[in-house]
TrEMBL record:
Record-given protein name: Alpha/beta hydrolase
Keywords: Hydrolase
Transferase in keyword set: no
Hydrolase among keywords: yes
Molecular function per GO: hydrolase activity
Length: 297
């Protein structure tokens, strides 16, 4: 059992280079009066991360919406790429645009976790009219190298579990100190989002070549920033959610985001690290209210 309701449909489309890519669709068809909501996951994550949040947003009793949660190439139900060099934020941004074009979505509100937020910065430069509101989940235009090293280390050190119970133990051992807010049922849901079920055996749901690429990165010294792209979003409503124990997004970066974007709403996810589970606490209600207000609904 995955604990998921099948309250979504699977959408498949072709990338520019011929891969069969996947997204989950929650709610009805695109409606020009109600902006769609697009959910973009982290580096090795997939659309399942957004399941409970997407159900909440799509089934809002007053403003039900279309919610589109993407699997990037090499993750979830999307094809793995024969060329690992295409596992880049630039290519993934193009894939998102291709999928939205096929769905007839010309403008949407975006929620981006980690890598998803980096893709949003790229889209702000390449498709400036696409985003009408932005929610950044533990990501911003400047990232801390310590946080990326931490991600590299736990991806490199992941053991292969023989059962979902063992998978919970592994993930709790890796992330438990940063996520004291998670209860047993939260860890089980977290694990079901990371691993696919192959006859009861959990298997990490992404192309292993992603990890090889990430391990090859030189994580010495300051990282390049995306402040120029961030400033292109000055005209849209914005929220940033920072994990209280995050090592990737610093308090100082959030403060600079607030300085550059007056009106930005900054929230701390108590008892969570990188990246916060958005279905926890009152985050679904807070995000839903922000997106309704941003759309003036």
């Amino acid at each position: 059992m995955t604990g998921e309701q099948q309250d979504f449909s699977d959408f498949f489309y072709k990338s520019d280079d011929g891969l069969r890519l996947h997204a989950r669709l929650y709610g009805g068809a695109a409606d020009g009066r109600l902006p769609a909501i697009v959910c973009l996951p982290g580096l090795t994550r997939n659309a399942r991360d957004f399941h409970h949040l997407a159900l909440h947003l799509a089934n809002d009793p007053t403003t039900p919406r279309l919610v589109v949660a993407f699997d990037y190439r090499g993750r979830g139900l999307s094809d793995y790429s024969p060329d690992p060099a295409t596992y880049s934020v630039a290519v993934e941004a193009r894939d998102i645009v291709t999928g939205l074009n096929e769905l007839g979505v010309e403008q949407a509100q975006f929620i981006g976790t980690s890598r998803g937020g980096l893709i949003m910065h790229i889209l702000a430069a390449t498709n400036p009219d696409l985003m009408s509101a932005a929610v950044f989940n533990d990501v911003g235009p400047a990232l801390e190298v310590e946080g990326l090293r931490q991600i590299r280390d736990y991806l490199d050190g992941s053991r292969t579990p023989k059962s979902f119970g063992e998978a919970v133990d592994i993930q709790r051992g890796i992330h438990g100190a940063a996520f004291p807010a998670l209860r047993s049922e939260d860890w089980e849901r977290f694990v079901r989002a990371i691993y696919r079920d192959e006859s009861g055996v959990p298997v990490l749901d992404y192309d292993p070549k992603l990890v090889a690429l990430f391990k090859a990165m030189t994580l010495e010294g300051p990282l390049p920033t995306l402040w120029e792209q961030f400033d292109l979003m000055a005209g849209i409503p914005m929220m940033v959610i920072r994990g209280e124990n995050s090592r990737l997004l610093s308090v100082e970066t959030v403060a600079e985001m607030e300085r550059r974007h007056p009106g930005l709403i900054a929230i701390t996810a108590a008892g969570q690290g990188h990246a916060p589970l958005l279905e926890m606490a009152s985050h679904p209600e807070t995000i839903g209210r922000f997106l309704r207000n941003a759309a003036k609904l």
